[in-house]
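Sorry, I am new here, but would you mind making up a protein's amino acid sequence and the tokens describing how it folds?
***
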Amino acid sequence: MSRRLINGISMITLISFLILGGCSQLTNKSISERVDLYYKKFEPSNKGKLQILAQKPVDDKMLVLAKKYSGDGHSYTELFLINKDNVLEKRAQGLTPISMCFSANKVDTQNRTIVYGNFNNSKWDMKSDTKKPVDIQYIIVKFENGETIKENVDKGYIVYSSTQSELKSIELYDASGQLQSDLNEIGNSENMEFVDVSLQI
């Protein structure tokens, strides 16, 4: 085999490897890398640190709750719906907690009700007029359709019903089962809407 042919085969092999490697790298992007593309496109001046607060599969798609605070004004979360082809289909904004230890945002979509929010590590106690620490380890969400969902949580939560339903209650507990807060302390959930995005990520 001539040296020129060997060099040609080696070059083709190298190019193929680089192409396949690039494709593999594209398909193996993390959730945070994909979500960050949304902020780079729609909020290029936002130089805050991206936080993925929660994520959950729904049917063949993924719900992702994220926050990227620019440092100006009140911060918000974004709930993203990403399909299996890595298209960010929809987004819904969410309020974040200020004096209380959690937020509750609600969006109705495709015959489901999705409740989502994030946490503080303290809350303002109205009775004593002081700030009290909280330790939130799990959440119980009840819907008017009779569904009760209990889940462990970290920085945030995403809970959805199997049918569209009114929200009945939210309760937050520490590891020993002591109630830390509930929906009565923040009044009610905030009604939000999904907005179409259709961004390939």
